[in-house]
Amino acid sequence: MQETIIEFQSVSKRYGNHHAVQDLDLQITKGEIFGLLGPNGAGKTTTMFMILGLIEPTQGQINVMGRSPYRSAIHVKREIGYLADTIGFYEQMSAKDNLSFIARLNQVPSQHLDRRVEDLLDLVGLSNVANKKAGTYSRGMKQRLGIAQALIKRPQILIMDEPTLGLDPRGVEELLNLVQQLNQQYGMTVIISSHQLDQVQKICDRVGIFVHGKLQAIGSIKELSEQLSLQLGHNCIIKWHKEATVDTEALDGLLRSRFASSQTSWEQNSLSITTTEYLTPQLVAWCSSQGLPIMQVQSNELTLQEIYGKYFENEKSRTKSTAV
Ligand code: ATP
Predict the structure, then answer these.
(1) The dihedral of CA 229, 164, 56, 157: what is its sign?
(2) Distance from the CA of 213 to the center of ligand 1, in angstroms?
(3) Are 234 and 276 within 8 A, CB to CB?
(4) What is the DSSP string of 236-271?
(5) How far is ligand 1, taken at its centre, from the CA of residue 30, in Å?
(6) Where's the ABC transporter domain (predicted)?
(7) Which of 80, 198, 279, 281 is the most buried (most CB within 10 A)?
(8) Per 3-state DSSP, what percentage of the chain is helix, strand, and coil (rounded to 5)?
(9) CB of 22 closer than 6 A to ligand 1?
């Protein structure tokens, strides 16, 4: 059974009359990579800060490993590593000295300190530049040093605020590979907030899309895509060998009687079907049972970018019509 490590129950955070987060119900499973997505001001940082116990909810309950992060602040903070969107290091000190300093602040026992610092520098791929001043590090190297810093107390949960911001494509890839490695090797639960949707899509098990403090959608990319397909219609293109003889007219009649809600369009050697629900496996099985020599199936699983755009678009038009 999957173990819940973080739980929000009807949580709201208000500033005066403004809801930064509203009625949030959310469960994060131990060992998953969860993406917090949303435009500026959506409530992502507030949500992360409530997990960290830095902000107290106005209403509702939060549990992190069975405790309230606000009331059991010290205990909960011990279990969470946090990488802020802007990280500061002592620029004149080496990466190793910066990390040792943080280790002492976190009360890492002195007999373990050197070893832990070395292991972490190795883990984040900075061993060979450990004695260079942090001020000479690139943004990508600083992010990796930031991760090492967040891991110094050996937390079970890692929270990262916009970690890929300002990184070049290679830096992004290296950082995300590292996050995945931490998750897979150590079973670490990772919460990552990002605007870089195409990247998040690659590594997150599930994502939550926030708009104006409300969690609008939650699930794996596949689940979100399917949910939205219900609203948008789901399209599937089936192609067959161009030399095959297919009686498209006869098949069209049969297909419509079997899948009543479908809209079909037949080309020379392809069929495009739009249905209100996700029926690709059934459609493919049916076409195959009718003797269609299928060469290729293209299912329009939406990218996270499209899903996100859709929610964001709806929200923008809602705000516009309210303003009018
Ligand atoms: P960004 O991507 O820009 O960091 P976000 O999704 O992290 O945005 P939050 O920082 O959580 O959003 O802010 C949510 C809302 O709450 C915003 O409208 C913000 O202006 C408001 N807010 C946050 N902190 C405070 C505060 N201390 N006082 C008043 N309003 C606040």
Answers:
(1) positive
(2) 9
(3) yes
(4) EEEEE-TTS---HHHHHHHHHHHSTT-EEEE-SSEE
(5) 27
(6) 6-237
(7) 80
(8) 40, 25, 30
(9) no
Return the residue whose CA atom lies nearest to atom 1 of ligand 1.
40
pLDDT attached to residue 69? 93
DSSP-derived letter for residue 205 is S
Does ligand 1 have an atom closer than 6 angstroms to the CB of 167?
no
Going by C-alpha positions, the residue among 165, 176, 148, 147 that lies closest to residue 83 is: 147
- Ligand 1 near 44 CB (within 6 A): yes
Q: Are 240 and 270 in contact (CB under 8 A)?
A: yes
Q: How many CB atoms lie within 10 A of CB 58?
A: 14
- The CB of 55 under 6 Å from ligand 1? The reply is no
Q: Which of 227, 210, 208 has its CA nearest to residue 218?
A: 208
Please give the Cα distance from 60 to 77 (Å, whole number): 20
pTM of the model: 0.79
Q: What is the pLDDT of residues 167-196, one digit of tens each?
A: 888 888 888 998 999 899 889 999 999 877
Residue given tokens 């859709």 in the structure block: 310
49 CA to centre of ligand 1 in angstroms: 11
- Strand, helix or coil for residue 180: helix
Distance 214 CA to ligand 1 centre (A): 13
CA of 69 to the centre of ligand 1 (A): 20
Residue-wise pLDDT for 49-88, tens only, equals 999 999 999 999 999 999 999 889 889 988 999 999 888 8
